[in-house]
Amino acid sequence: QKEVEQDPGPLSVPEGAIVSLNCTYSNSAFQYFMWYRQYSRKGPELLMYTYSSGNKEDGRFTAQVDKSSKYISLFIRDSQPSDSATYLCATPGNTGNQFYFGTGTSLTVIP
Amino acid sequence: DSGVTQTPKHLITATGQRVTLRCSPRSGDLSVYWYQQSLDQGLQFLIQYYNGEERAKGNILERFSAQQFPDLHSELNLSSLELGDSALYFCASSVVGTSGSNNEQFFGPGTRLTVL
To answer: What is the pLDDT of residues B63-83, one digit of tens each?
Structure first.
């Protein structure tokens, strides 16, 4: 089983929709989780990180961790065409030296 | 702009050849990570260096090697290239080399390698 698994999509939504992106992880000892956004032909950029369980909000973005089900989510409110990108979840695992990324979910927001 | 630079942007070479990819981390970052991104495998962690020393190894083939120099720039050497090595290679840097909220990785623009 991979450390982090992510539905590759693609996901296509109309502008203004609420988007839900999800990942599952394998090891209950993992505590830090990140969401990266990657535009076509660019390097990934960090959107948000969360620690342990709960929610973290930043503008239109909310990251959520459910440790009981080993599930991490990223919600995007009022989605914009500029949000069209690939979103990757990641975790440094429990040693911090390895980094495990999901395969990414491709999102298109249609104007 | 993340502050991480990678050269070259594109590289086209033939099977069996050897290439070197270069990365300069952000100013002040001691840790450098190398990743391979292909369509079917996603982003795969290859190797990490921290202040000149190897810190962690991921799915790096024996044909691949890396090093980090005293000025903290890093090079990834790929030898005996195969068609399947065609991918985007990213370098990332961070201030520290362990997990935590301050271990944000900043990614470079990548080197696109095509092996013909």
So the answer is: 999 999 999 999 999 999 999
